[in-house]
Write a structure and sequence with these properties.
about 325 residues; 18 strands
Length: about 325
Amino acid sequence: MALALIFFGVVTLVYRQEPHLVPQLILNWWPLVLILLGIEVLLAGYFCREEVPRIKYDFLALIFVFVIGVASLGLYVFNSSGFAARLIQALGAVSFTVDLPEKRVAVPEEVQKIIVQGAGGGWHNLQLRGGKSEGQLVYFGQALVTTSSEAEAKEFAHNAGLFSRQVGDTLFLELRGVPLSHGFGPSARVLVGTLILPAGLEVEVAGAENWVELEVIMEQMEAEWNISNSGSIRVTLDRGINAQIEAYSRAADLLQGNVEWEIKNGAAAPTHELANKPSEQELAVISYSQAEPEIMARATIGEGGPLLRLSSRDAIIINVR
């Protein structure tokens, strides 16, 4: 016991300037405690002055040996399962803000419609901009990744972002979060993602069930947009845009902004089924439906024009700037 105490005292003294290394050191070298205890017992018998050395173990000593054995087996299982490494990594983790991979996707001339699967788990804010780019769509964003190093955070973020697949005249877009396991270990969330869509194409946004804040900025609007989101929807329209707004909400006080709402009660929200979807193994695009709201409202922007249909369980805010 004395040798084991001396060993751990020396180790603690040496690593006092780097305490984060001590847990890993204990997990790597704990079998040495058993070896030191065994050596101590052998030395005690060897140097004993009695002609026939006897080492007596009382009841408490037997319990102590049993506890050491069980603890050793527990540490072995704890270390070999990988749980210990993940726990140590979580204790020493630091949060890093990293950029998501920027994607530029050329939109073929035959594409007439874009379907965006709403941001899934781990997203905080998504911004859609319409009418800015011509012939291509652009995506970029930032994520907050909590892990042991900035290089590892960037590696995790590299697997997130925008993924696309064309089926006929429809372009399917999927927004993926940072793929991380649950429990102890690295964690991440997408702080903001921005998707710039070209004008002149019909757009459908299939909202997720995680209350992502969705912001839509329209600089041009030449085709119909359908947006469904469980969280809030904030729309900013450039002055001079002509559009018809149709909004579905749970309550009239959730319809906000500087437009004049014409509110009607008892309207059912539209449900959407994404047809002609690609293989789920290559690109997951899920069908969705919103809970039936109590309120439907309309508004006319300018002289009226393409339809902007919105459905949300939270606030719908429309402002013309």
